[in-house]
Design goal:
This protein is an alpha+beta fold. Among the domains are: 1-33 and 221-342, Methylamine Dehydrogenase, Chain H (7 Propeller), CATH 2.130.10; 536-645, 7 Propeller (Methylamine Dehydrogenase, Chain H), CATH 2.130.10.10; 675-707 and 717-782, Immunoglobulins (Immunoglobulin-like); 903-1077, Histidine kinase-like ATPase, C-terminal domain (Heat Shock Protein 90, 2-Layer Sandwich), CATH 3.30.565; 1095-1224, Response regulator (Rossmann fold), CATH 3.40.50.2300; 1245-1375, Arc Repressor Mutant, subunit A, CATH 1.10.10. It is 24% helix and 32% strand. The chain is built from 23 helices and 82 strands. The strands form 19 sheets. It has a six-stranded mixed sheet with strand order 11-10-15-14-13-12, with no helix packed on it. Strands 17-16-21-20-19-18 form a six-stranded mixed sheet, with no helix packed on it. Helix 15 packs across helix 19 (1296-1314). Residues 4-22, 1009-1013, 1063-1070, 1081-1102 and 1355-1380 have low confidence and may be disordered.
């Protein structure tokens, strides 16, 4: 059919090179559509059907929708070697061969990578990469590749190999290896023809190892096309015909002999009809019949749908469906698609007078001789004589009465007399006179009016040859009406002025006239003018009764309507939902087959009313435009249909517009796994065949898939719809419309199959499904061995379940019991808080009865210093207890949310100063820099004075509490018109970072030692936060550990309309709260020398001993010092660390320490003392304010001697001290009596008595052992070294050396009593060789000299003791080295 159309075109157009290519619609692809460059050097279609284009800037793959561009990437060896692509081909392994200006690449469509091709130099085994310019590539039937290069000649690459060999050329008896090969082409019997540039035509026979030059008449050519016994050869000087059998050149086709449009032939293509398409570099395409050598057609460059985009044509390629793909330089890709030749278009050509006057077509009419009249919207009328192909155009000429009255033509009709009637929008009705070639104007006058109705939109001729004209209502200018032509009067008369603004009119087979207006379908009564109107709601633009009597109405916006004329109702409505291309139905025509053709604002629909199937056609199908106009439709006598739009007219024969029958193949264009191209993840590919991936296996954590696919249809790709289905995941097919992608994220482990298919251009689903099998591997925890493990776990769980069920009832009971207990604890806690609050209230009464009488007693002048001091202590501590109670009461009120603000207007500066002065004496006593900064004395705000006092009192109290001596505290006050800002800055310990989020929580206290040792409930900052928030203010802080803290409070100043606080409250000094919270200002009364002895505790201790008092409360230290001042030498320390240092320095006889202290607690101090070798004998008495049993246990663990809780009775403490010291003295006196052999009346525990006797026996047994030491003694006793040392120290108060010396002297006394030895002999006997030292030590222990002792006791005990004969000489030598 396509060849037949071309033949007809040639017959109709004898002047082949006139530039008229009306029967070939040419479409265009360029950089606007995604082509990398408009200079296209080569075109190729691979085995899948993708089109490939080589350009000056990369390789392009086209799938009918989009381009995919491949370019050289710097530094990437797997990319294209060079962007200037000359040639493309494909081998039998489906790899693409790409020849460039810098060598040859093969492209693997699976991996997406380019690889180089090597060649073996002739006569050697050395391989070299092909880097020369590759001009052309050809493949024979066996898959052997022939590569034409510049410099390295023709290369031959066997099938399946990617290493080529050089083909030498025999020329004039010489073998050429380095030459420029070009234009290779395979002819019959696998003979390869090519040119050696500069030498001539060469031939390589089958199985030959070298080529030979066969003809040198033409030395250079760019292309060859075999045709039987002929070779068509394109050269820079024209087209040559070479006869193979005679080895001669025959006819030449050149520009000079008029047989070629341009001499520079760049490419040749021989089509199936035996025509040779000659591409020229500057003259477009010339088509020649190869049979007789005559010219068939010429396709030049131009701006119409029938011309090329560029005259420089570099390649012509015909795909499997007969499309011609034309590669041009600068004009991109031009396509001649036979499917688009079905619709012929006629457009306005501004450079050609023999064309339509305008592209805006509005009306048609056909005469009996086939002449077609075309009305335009604004450019007048055209008379188209199809047999001669001429257009005669008519337009309005100002001042010429017989010219067309207006250029806006709305309708054209031809009556039985072959008169041509033309209606215009601004000029009424015209009739064309063929004899005079002029127009006569007809005026349409309304009844009883001389005003002409010029806006004629409707012109219709019925079966009776009556001519009807309808006009629009123009307001005050003239009224619209329906007119009828009166042939007798030769004038239009008003038929009915109640029928204005008619758009269309039609007559059914019964002779009934129908019309349509803006809203309704009208049934016209031509006799009685009793018209019937049927409201449809949309403008009626077309009325058509088909050959089967069905009545169709085309509406603008309401689609196509099937109307029942008998019932006067709509039977069926068809819109885009049913397949109509657009709901604005402008014209309806019926073809010879009974199908309806419907033009719209977006395409043309063919409707099979019996099957109710729409087939839509658009610009991509060959129409000149998608938008069509009102009235512009006509069925010709030949059966052809005419439709006019905004881009000329379209004429076609419906019988030729059949279903394409095309079944495009589906292909994957890209697959991504986890956002990476599948070709880069070759380890996941399990199966691939024919360049297609069939199966992949992917880990579960990368199971994110993206598929791109397409149906290869290069004519109507926009009309193809897709649907896809993931078998094993989706429940139904997913309708994707024209979208060509699908994405799945995080597929579960398992086997899947992704399936996709498409429709054809007619919307029918095809059996072109493609699929990809996908295996998503399970994670390790879903493998078979993991499942086995799970089974074991389940079995174990089942076994445990039995046990679990037996425990369930008991557990439920325990949970219920726990819940009940929790509820009771909650209730008990609430009762405890209420009780504690009530008790706090009750405490205030006795405290009042204590504070006031004590204060009265303190004011009496006759009190002694001692009494004054003790009363002062009572007063201070009673006030302290009162402060604590008040803090608890404030907390209870704030926490229960019953506290409300009592706002007044008061002097805020005075309040801050009063709070500041409350701590001035305390700051002075702690040697702290204490500063108040304020720039005004009268700053009034509105608020609750008492609550603000509490807040700032707590802030300053904390600042002083956590700032060590020598630190700095600053209270600063700043203000603006709207708010005041108060900052409290200290240089104390700072707030730890971990405590910062919690410091405003109630009961929160930092666990750090410097904070934990400070007294408090953890409610001070909670109250501050609560009271500041109640005032609508804010509090924040900045702190650095070890550097200090700054609290910032911002308060609104409030309204001045609030009543001021009474003057008495402001000037009264301190409020009740400050009066309660402030420390009493009376100075501490010092102890005097005149204090009576009645105040001392009589301790029966012979010598004045040393007592160390350790407590961080100065008042406690002073109180204890007052108790023991006359009986002990006193030392004081304010913390455990200082106490340990003083204990080491003075070795006190007893230590009294508080447990809770900074730096080092009392428990740590006791542990250090008991572990110190010089201090471990010192008794330690611990005092604590806690009555918890845990405290007693902890004190016992660290080795304390006694544990007393506060408050304590002073008599009990005195008795405890006396008891501790008396116990120690009893032990030591017992030991001394044992040593001095006196009568021992002291009562000690059996443990100590046994220890002393055992130690004496062991030491006496080792008096002559020079190696005797503490380790030997510990081993003999069976105790550790440290335990023996501590016990000896406790019993004797002496070190080990002193303890042994005592026992030596005891033995000496025994010898003095029981033996007649003299003093010197006895000294040697007990191991003391120095007689003088022996006499001194004996005198210290026994209170007399050894000689006196002998005289006094030896007689007395003479009869009692028996003398022991001792060999003193023998032992004297052994004790020369004995020490004391």
């Amino acid at each position: 059919m396509h060849c037949l159309l071309l033949i007809v075109a040639a017959l109709r157009l004898p002047e082949a090179f006139a530039g008229d290519n009306r029967y070939h619609v040419i479409s265009y692809l360029g950089i606007e559509q995604g082509l990398s460059n408009n200079a296209v050097r080569c075109v190729f279609q691979d085995h899948k059907g993708f089109m490939w284009f080589g350009t000056y800037d990369g390789l392009n793959r086209f799938d009918g929708n989009v381009f995919k561009v491949f370019r050289n990437k710097f530094g990437d060896s797997s990319s294209l070697v060079n962007n200037w692509v000359f040639t493309i081909h494909e081998d039998l392994q489906y790899k693409l061969w790409v020849g460039t200006r810098q060598g040859l690449n093969t492209y693997d469509p699976v991996s997406g990578k380019f690889s180089p091709v090597y060649y073996q130099q002739h006569g050697t085994k050395q391989l070299a990469r092909i880097t020369a310019v590759v001009r052309d590539i050809r493949r024979d039937a066996k898959g052997n590749m022939f590569i034409a290069t510049e410099g390295t000649g023709l290369l031959y690459c066997p099938a399946g190999s990617y290493t080529a060999v050089q083909v030498p050329v025999l020329s004039e008896g010489k073998q050429l290896l380095s030459y420029d090969a070009g234009a290779p082409e395979l002819a019959a019997n696998d003979v390869v023809w090519f040119f050696v540039q500069g030498r001539g035509l060469c031939r390589l026979d089958k199985n030959a190892t070298q080529a030979k030059v066969v003809n040198t008449a033409i030395s250079t050519a760019d292309c060859i096309k075999p045709n039987g016994d002929q070779l068509w050869i394109g050269t820079p000087n024209g087209l040559m015909q070479y006869v193979i059998s005679s080895n001669t050149y025959g006819q030449a086709y050149t520009e000079e002999n008029g047989k070629l449009a341009y001499n520079k032939v760049s490419s040749l293509f021989l089509d199936k009809c035996g025509r040779l398409w000659v591409a020229t570099n500057g003259g477009g395409i010339s088509i020649i019949y190869t049979g007789d050598g005559s010219a068939a057609a010429h396709i030049p460059a131009g701006n119409s749908n029938y011309t090329l985009a560029s005259a420089s044509v570099s390649a012509i390629y015909e795909d499997t469906e007969g499309r011609k793909w034309i590669g041009t330089l600068r004009g991109g890709v031009n396509i001649i698609d036979p499917k688009k030749d079905r619709f012929q278009s006629y457009l306005h050509d501004p450079l050609n007078n023999n064309s339509l006057p305008s592209n805006f077509i509005f009306a048609f009419c056909e005469e009996k001789d086939g002449t077609i009249w075309v009305g335009t919207d604004g450019q007048g009328l055209s008379r188209w004589q199809r047999h001669s192909g001429t257009f005669t155009n008519y337009a309005h000429q100002a001042g010429v009465s017989n010219s067309l009255s207006d250029n806006f033509v709305t309708n054209i009709r031809c009556d039985k007399d072959q008169h041509i009637w033309i209606s215009t929008f601004w000029g009424g009705v015209n009739r064309f006179d063929k004899k005079t070639n002029s127009f006569r104007h007809y005026s349409l006058l309304s009844n009883n009016s001389e005003k002409e109705s010029k806006t004629v939109y409707l012109l219709y001729k019925d079966s009776q040859d009556n001519l009807w004209a309808g006009t629009f209502d123009r307001g005050a200018l003239y009224k619209g009406a329906l007119y009828k032509y009166d042939r007798l009067q030769d004038a239009f008369r008003v038929f009915d002025d109640k029928l204005p603004d008619l758009f269309t009119m039609a007559e059914d087979r019964n002779g009934q006239l129908w019309a349509g207006n803006l809203h309704s379908l009208i049934k016209i009564d031509t006799l009685h003018r009793q018209h019937q109107s049927y409201t449809l709601g949309n403008p009626v633009r077309a009325i058509q009764e088909d050959s089967k009597g069905r009545f169709w109405i085309g509406t603008e916006g309401g689609g196509l309507i099937l109307f029942d004329r008998q019932a006067g109702k709509v039977l069926q409505r068809y819109t885009t939902a049913e397949g109509l291309c657009n709901n604005a139905v402008l014209n309806i025509l019926e073809d010879e087959a009974g199908d309806l053709w419907i033009s719209t604002f977006y395409g043309i629909s063919r409707f099979n009313a019996d099957k109710k199937i729409f087939t839509n056609f658009y610009q991509g199908d060959g129409l000149s435009s998608n938008q069509f106009n009102y009235n512009a439709a006509l069925r010709l006598r030949s059966g052809e249909l005419l439709f006019g739009g905004i881009k000329g007219l379209n004429i076609f024969r419906p019988a030729n517009i059949g279903a394409s029958g095309n079944q495009p193949e589906m292909h994957f264009t890209d697959i991504h796994v986890n956002n990476q191209r599948l070709g880069q993840l070759t380890q996941y590919i399990q199966d691939q065949r024919g360049g297609e991936i069939r199966k992949i296996k992917v880990p579960y954590n990368e199971a994110v898939f993206s598929f791109a696919f397409t149906a290869l249809d290069f004519s109507t790709s926009d009309k193809i719809a897709y649907t896809y289905f993931m078998e094993g995941w989706d429940k139904n097919w997913n309708q994707a419309g024209n979208s060509r992608t699908a994405t799945y994220t995080h597929l579960a482990a398992g086997h899947y199959t992704f399936r996709v298919k498409s429709t054809n251009a007619e919307g029918q689903w095809l059996n072109n499904e493609i699929s990809l099998e996908i295996i998503v591997l399970p994670p390790w925890y879903a493998t078979w061995w993991a499942c086995l493990l799970y089974l074991l776990v389940v079995l174990a769980a089942a076994a445990a379940f039995i046990t679990y069920k037996t425990k369930q009832r008991r557990l439920k009971y325990e949970i219920a019991l726990a819940k009940l207990t929790t509820e009771k604890e909650r209730e008990l806690n609430e009762k405890k808080i209420a009780f504690f609050t009530n008790v706090s209230h009750e405490f205030r009464t006795p405290l009042t009865l204590i504070i006031n009488p004590v204060k009265d007693l303190m004011e009496e002048e006759e009190l002694t210093g001692k009494h004054q001091r003790e009363l002062n202590t009572v007063y201070r501590n009673a006030r302290r207890l009162l402060r604590l109670l008040d803090q608890l009461l404030l907390f209870r009120r704030a926490d229960s949310e019953i506290d409300r603000l009592k706002p007044t207007r008061f002097n805020f500066t005075a309040l801050c100063r009063e709070v500041f002065l409350s701590f001035e004496q305390q700051a002075q006593s702690d040697n702290q820099a204490y500063t108040f900064l304020c720039d005004t004395t009268d700053l009034y705000i509105t608020g609750d004075r008492e609550k603000l006092e509490v807040a700032f009192f707590n802030l300053l109290s904390n600042a002083l509490k956590y700032t060590p001596a020598g630190g700095r505290i600053t209270l600063a006050l700043q203000h603006t018109d709207q708010e005041v800002t108060i900052t409290v800055t200290d240089t104390g310990y700072g707030i730890p970072a971990e405590s910062a989020p919690h410091i405003f929580d109630k009961f929160y206290r930092s666990e750090r030692q410097c904070h934990a040792q400070q007294s408090g409930f953890g409610i001070g900052l909670y109250l501050v936060k609560q009271f500041i928030t109640l005032h609508g203010g804010s509090i924040s802080f900045q702190s650095a550990a070890g550097e200090g803290t700054t609290f910032t409070v911002v308060l609104p100043r409030g309204s001045e309309a609030t009543p001021e606080e009474p003057a008495t409250t402001v000037t009264a000094g301190r409020t009740g709260f400050l009066h309660t919270m402030a420390e009493p200002q009376e100075p501490m009364t010092e102890l005097t020398e005149e204090e009576t002895e009645d105040d001392t505790i009589g301790l029966r201790i012979t010598d004045k001993q040393t007592m160390l008092i350790v407590d961080d409360d100065e008042q406690i230290r002073q109180y204890l010092a007052g108790m023991f001042r006359h009986t002990f030498q006193l030392e004081e320390a304010s913390n455990g660390k200082e106490g340990l240092e003083k204990a080491i320095a003075i070795l006190p006889d007893v230590v009294i320490s508080d447990i809770r202290m900074e730096t080092m607690s009392g428990l740590e101090l006791c542990r250090e003392i008991k572990q110190h070798p010089l201090l471990n004998h010192i008794p330690v008495i611990l005092l604590t304010g806690s009555s918890a049993e845990e405290g007693k246990l902890e004190s016992a663990e660290v080795g304390s001697d006694y544990y007393l809780t506060k408050p304590f009775e002073k008599e009990l403490l005195a008795a405890t001290v006396q008891s501790v010291l008396q116990t120690r003295d009893n032990l030591r006196n017992y030991f001394l009596n044992e040593v001095t052999l006196r009568k021992n009346d002291f009562k000690v525990s059996g443990q100590y008595k046994e220890f002393v006797e055992k130690c004496i026996a062991i030491v006496e047994a080792n008096l002559d052992n020079d190696a005797f030491n503490i380790k030997v003694l510990a081993r003999e006793i069976g105790m550790s070294h440290s335990s023996v040392y501590k016990k000896i120290r406790q019993v004797s108060g002496e070190s080990l050396r002193g303890f042994v010396r005592f026992i030596r002297l005891r033995k000496a006394a025994e010898l003095m009593i029981n033996t007649p030895l003299n003093v010197n002999e006895i000294g040697f006997q007990v191991g003391i060789n120095d007689v003088k030292y022996f006499r001194q030590q004996f005198n210290k222990v026994f209170g007399m000299n050894p000689s006196d002792y002998i005289r006094r006791y030896r007689k007395v005990f003479e009869d009692k003791y028996k003398l022991e004969k001792i060999d003193t000489k023998r032992k004297a030598s052994d004790r020369k080295k004995a020490g004391t």
